[in-house]
Amino acid sequence: MELAIHHSKVRSGNGKAKYFVRTGEVISSNLESTTHTYSDTTVTGRSYITSRTKKKTVFWLRFENGQERKYILNSDVDILSGQKISLLYLEGKKSTCLVGIANHTAAEYIPYFSRTEFRKVFKPNRENMTLLASVGLVGSVALYHSEVLKHDLNIAEWLVGGFFYAMGIFFVSGLVFLFIALIQTILDFDYYLFKKEVKNNLNKIL
Prior knowledge:
Blueprint: E1 7-12, E2 15-41, E3 47-63, E4 68-73, E5 84-91, E6 96-103, E7 108-111, H1 115-122, H2 126-150, H3 155-205
Antiparallel strand pairs: 1-2, 2-3, 2-5, 3-4, 5-6, 6-7
Helix pairs in contact: 2-3
Keywords: Membrane, Transmembrane, Transmembrane helix
């Protein structure tokens, strides 16, 4: 099946990810729901009960080669038996995710992705950047204390030096986390590009 975009323009440490499609006929489809009930007590001693219902769409798909496969989607997706659908995937170096469903019979598409799927494939490494900045700050504090121990400073000198050093730490940490926020904003631009690619491909499939 022809796609508008075969390889994503969003780059990652793993290189470029590619899109591919699997098409088949829905031979069965069911909506399953599970309700979880929680109870708790407030500070005043009043008890209350809350409930949360999770819905899953479970369907079997028969592909053009005769093979059949079961799919479970963690949401209420309008798929009926007998409909012809195409599943759009995004494949990275270490992970493959379903990112959209094109329903040929109903002539509509369903985007099925979130930032979670985006990170699984592209791995922007936000957590690693934050960890690196934190390690650097902790290391600088340890270095200051080691330098203090080398000199015979009185309490006043230690407090004054510590105050200015702390101000420097806060200033540097502010710059570091500002840089991280900027990088995250850039990564969000990548996410919006990813969304556009998925929708273009789904439109092309239909």
